[in-house]
Amino acid sequence: MNPLVSVIIPFTEDTSSFVKCLDSLVNQTLTRIEVILVNDGATPDAVQLVKDYQDRDQRITVVPEDQETLALNRGLACASGEYVTFLDQDGWVGEETYENLYKIATQDQTDILMGNGVYCYKSGRKTEIYKSSTPPVEEHILSGTEAFVFLSKYGEVNLTPAISLYKKEFIEKNQHSFQSHIHQDELWGPMTLCTAERVKIIGYSFYSWYQSPISYRVADRFEERYHALTNLAEQLKLFIDRYSFETEEKAVKSWLFVRLMCIYHYAVDQLKNAQLDDFDRYKERILPVIGELGQLDPVAAEAADIYYRLIRNIVKNHYACTLPEK
Question: N or C: which end of the chain has fewer CB within 10 A?
């Protein structure tokens, strides 16, 4: 029988939290799952660890390293479950997680079922991945655009795929894939959510993600992060252009612009640290976006303006240049 849920995890290193991740998966009460471990430049110790688990559990598939294709996309290509989800190798879930999520997803026929989780720090501190929202929308089926606007307005939008269960048919129908090795959530999250027909947000916190040094392994690779972010921004802008300010789509387009400004803020922050001579190109990219900010709905415009002020301050202080008013 085909698995009901496919769980995709790229891995690089052998850590205690990776062991915790694997243990949480092989002990799921939903037995019809497949665990797809994707070698993403793993150390020999990590390769041996996953081999040991694979030898003990036939539900585990190990995908070999391939420099040409992004790890998450290689995992997706191998997935045969009715639903798919993704974990970081330093994240773990409760033992009843996928039994509970699968039951809700099939009962409500969702394209995306979104829960919540916590970041776990070495100090013992924990913070929610996205903040509880007001007003509540649990128990309601929303369109994807409704869910995106709601989360943007009332919650701290963090669309990490680990807190969602996706119907695989929906991903294939819309040809969704990951477009970057880093910061991939910045595009995957808005595009999957906005193209979904049926979304449910539930008050179920099931995912714990330990913020280890591996979680920040690209933190000082400023040039790589800058190029990834600007490329993602260009792709997100193409997606945004599908929507119109002149119709009922104005709200979703406005909040997508907020996400775009957030990415451009991240990007210019990386650019100044990278000491890369690319500001003129950055400016060429962002100026057309600035020209459209005046069309945003009022609440989204306020949110976008926060990012724009941050961008203008960096540009003024680091490049002695003044970007135009909106």
Answer: N
Place of tokens 């962002």: 286
pTM for this one? 0.92
pLDDT at 214: 46
* Token representation of residue 185: 């959530």
Q: What is the three-state SS of the chain?
A: CCCCEEEEEEECCCCHHHHHHHHHHHCCCCCCEEEEEEECCCCHHHHHHHHHHHHHCCCEEEECCCCCCCHHHHHHHHCCCCEEEECCCCEEECCCHHHHHHHHHHHHCCCEEEEEEEEECCCCCEEECCCCCCCCCCCCEECHHHHHHHHHHHCCCCCCHHHEEEEHHHHHHCCCCCCCCCCCHHHHHHHHHHHCCCEEEEEEEEEEEECCHHHHCCCCCHHHHHHHHHHHHHHHHHHHCCCCCCCCCHHHHHHHHHHHHHHHHHHHHHHHHHCCCCHHHHHHHHHHHHCCHHHCCHHHHHHHHHHHHHHHHHHHHHHCCCCCCC
Residue 197 token pair: 């027909």
- Chain segment 147-203, per-residue pLDDT in tens: 999 889 876 666 789 999 999 999 999 999 999 888 888 999 999 999 999 999 988
